[in-house]
Design goal:
The protein is of the alpha+beta class. Helix content is 23%, strand content 27%.
Length: 184
């Protein structure tokens, strides 16, 4: 199933998501549906709140970016359930980010280039992994959704002001993108 993606202004995007209980029904199916939704929207990450489900779960897959220059992006499909950051590196880098819940907006965001995360997958297998560079940034971006935070919150006041018109349009339900969305 492909879900509509919730757009800026939807209250679920600003809520702190709850932990996923072990008896959560059909978790593997939800993970598969989230991946299908993300692929359909040409994304590389998607958090459960972005489809209206306020649980601590997100998916990431950078395979679409794998090429001769970036073979490290092969086999990067991950499902993160109840993730916890164990370490966040001090070294940061700023790069352009976009978000499926903020269509048409991309801004430079500073993020750590190395993180260590403990999480469960959709089958409740525990993982403890280190992610670097763009993979680390994608994980941090999606993780923020679980805390009701969006990347637009971190841009400078001037850049936020420059996006005010687009954000205001989203709050009015006016969105132009090629994937199904849910607006206020």
């Amino acid at each position: 199933m492909i879900y509509p993606i919730y757009i800026y202004g939807m209250p679920v995007l600003r809520k702190v998501a709850t932990d996923v209980p072990k008896d959560y029904p059909n978790l593997p199916q939800l993970a598969d549906d989230m991946l299908k939704t993300m692929y359909h929207a040409d994304g590389v990450g998607l958090a459960a709140p972005q489809i209206g489900i306020s649980i601590r779960m997100f998916v990431v897959d950078l395979e679409v970016m794998a090429d001769d220059k970036h073979p490290e992006y092969k086999n990067t499909k991950r499902v993160f359930v109840n993730p916890v950051f164990v370490e966040v590196g001090d070294e940061t880098q700023s790069s352009e980010e976009g978000c499926l819940s903020l269509p048409g907006i991309s801004e430079p965001v500073k993020r750590s280039t190395r993180i260590r995360v403990k999480y469960f997958d959709e089958n409740w297998q525990e993982h403890d992994e280190v992610f670097t560079d763009f993979f680390a940034k994608a994980v941090q971006h999606e993780y923020e959704h679980l805390d009701g935070h969006m990347f637009i919150d971190d841009v400078s006041p001037i850049r936020r002001q420059m996006n005010r018109g687009r954000l205001h349009s989203m709050l009015k339900g006016k969105v132009n993108c090629r994937y199904a969305v849910k607006t206020v």
